[in-house]
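Table S5 (text form). Sequence records supplied for joint modeling of the two-component complex.
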Amino acid sequence: MRRIGRIAAGQLRLFVRSRLALVALLLLAMLSAIAALTGAAQAERMAAERAQAQAAANTSFANQPDRHPHRMVHYGTYALRPLGGLAAFDPGVDAFAGSLLYLEGHRQNATTLGTARESSGLIRFGQLTPAFVLRVLVPLLLVFAGFAMIVGERQGGLITLHLGHGVRPHEYLAGKALALGAVAGVAALPALAALGWAAAHTPADAGVAGVMALAVLLWLLLWVLGVTLASARAATAQSALLGLVLVWALLVVLVPRAAAGVAAIAHPLPTKAETDLIIHAELRALGDSHNPDDPHFAAFKAGLLRRYQVNRVEDLPFNYRGALSAEGERLTSQLFARHAAEAAARQRAQHRLLALAGLVSPAIGFAQASMAGAGTDLASHLAFLDAAEAHRYRLVQSLNGLHTFQVRAADDATRSRDPIAERQSRISAHFWADQQPFHFAGPAPAARIAGMLPGLGVMLAWALVLGWLLARIARRGLP
Amino acid sequence: MIAALAREWRHLAAPARIGLVVLALLAGVAVALGLADVAATRADIARVVQLEQRETAAITGFAKGDPGELGYYRNHPAWRAPGDLAFLAPGRGDAVPAVLRLRILALEGQINDNEAANPELLLAGRFDFAFVTLYLAPLLLIALLHDLWSSEREAGRLAALASLPGAARRLWAPRALLRTGGVALALLVPLLIGGALAGTAPLRLAVAAGLVLASLAFWALVTLLVARQEAQSATQATILAGLWFAITLVVPAAAHLAINAAVPLPDAAAITRENREEVHAGWDRPKPKTMARFVALYPEYRAAAQVTRIFDWKWYFAFQHLGDMAVAADSQAREAGIARREALAQGLGWLLPPIKAAQAMQHLAGSDVAADLAFRARLRAHHRALREYHYPFLFAGRPMTAADIAAAPAFAATAQKSIVR
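The corresponding structure-token record, covering 900 residues in total, follows.
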């Protein structure tokens, strides 16, 4: 143990003495600090803006004057995807997923907004967030810092000297890995501090943040082990460096993009425009509300007349137009739900394909785990879309209920001709204030931790393999 | 010279040759994926246009010539037809839709719609030709050139080689040229094949090839400058990989942060909300006032602007448009802000040539921010043409015949005007 410490301390002295490594580490720590600070400021601002926009939407809905309820169906409301506290650490898909959804009757709107659509093209080069720093930049720093630490000493004949002094190979390797691990720790410190700070802000997320910190340490451990392994096995320092940079480019830069490209082709998503058109066509086949002789709506009407034992809709104990609207909404929403579920299933299939590619490139596993923990992954976006659609349906049907039971059928029938009927068809404003506002808390901490497990599993498997390879080298003696 | 190049090829180590082949393969795959993406986008657009015709026929059936019903229910498709270089950096699956449907209702509630894309794939970034050129090719170039001199020095041959007469011309120049040329060919051959398959205009293809060469020339120059220094090959590799890392990853990401912080945008959610408030307030405002505001914009309808019924389509569409007018200034300021952010990013490109090459490639592909903004401008113009086509029918109370419905302005697919667009 003491010998491991001595080797590590020696290597750390070398790191400090190597001007290049020290400058790189300082630069990285600075970048990391910038990412952490701006990330926190930005996430806080965006979360506040969205909460404020949500409150404004709720207030303006609640404050509408006396109106015909169908006007409120078209007035609609907004759902904003909230941003959790840990999004400061990893904003994940947030920039690319619209954050605002307009909820109204008869239509399932597309999301709007999103940082990606309001930024310069530079956003395609990546966003400087603590998670990006840890996933992309820190590993390369570890490569630069550690590629020569063993092979360089072998080329200089120093290893034989160490081993001659009674240091055993596994102690030597462990000492080197420990020193590189210390560099990794220093480099990760600002990002981890950001995580801790975010967790302190939202104490309910502290447990998730702890698991995320674990994911970070596991991810960096992979690189510490990998760099140590490469440096122990390479013939020359130069080949260790080129090999490691190549592996880094493959795992961190190339494979995630290529996997995304493959996923897009393997499970193609239809455009929103096409889905809308297909829904319209299906709706006509199901029941065409514009066709007075439509069999579905004729049967609907006949069923109501039979149930209430009357001959004309005017004799029903409620407003038939409202009931008709509710039936129409039920039909359209069924189709919305089916197509949304199909689109979500395809996106989940794409996500699983990426996760599978994570076996080759643990960078994907780390990214997916960190996004899942931060509540900024695909799953939480899809959950938001589901919650918003459920809210839309509930709200519209509640308004259709008011239309059915609070608006007199006679007024409703003549309101576009008769100003008095028009006035009487407006119902009290308090009904709007009584509606439940939209609320979406995002996936619960337990669900988020569960979402992290596949990524953590992949990284753990990699760590075991790398650890085993290192142990084998230690057993066989250093080359 | 040919003989010297052939000799250098024979001397090229096996890993270097494999590297060149792999780069060519990756570029080829990127081009193939790009071509497939473009074909899929064209098919998406064609399907939507065709389905929309069916939809319009159905609406025509129940609207019975009522211009109000037609205006309310009918959608008009608009699209971004991928150009002949779109395969370099295709935009399929972007948040910006390639095809969308417009109604003559308030535009502000339609123009910001996102495509139903998987954001996780967008986050990962694209594997396209622009990516291979910007990220992967320079890494290989650095690997091939960084130890041009230091490897010979470390092998103890440098002094002997340098003492040969005309060593620069006979040895180093062919060696550097072969390696740079190899990387260039690995990119250019797939590019040219892709261009031939896509039927790219020769001049535009030449511009794209020029961008590839310019980007490689920059990296070759930087690499040779570092390689010329007397240092260990590992140190040179570290410096160059660090430079690559800074230019392609760190600086753009940091600049993105700085630019977005420096150029704030008007609150989009507030603009959307205000637009809705304006439109819906139209229902409750006195009709003569609404119509007076409308005819101030469209004086030709002054004589027909009186509304006597409780509901009249011309009044409905009038307040839809007034809703757009109410936020026009904010909306414009927002687009101007986005354009400003992009202009700053382009400015950064002039400082870092590889970034500029990537930006120019996206521009050629028509998937950059400028293309998005230009598309928005065309959507606005098209929406206006559609509205103004409907107004005479709405204000004269004249029914639309089948011929009138068919004669509604069609969206004009982009014309390739200049070399760059």
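Note: The beta strands of chain A are 77-80, 100-104, 107-112.
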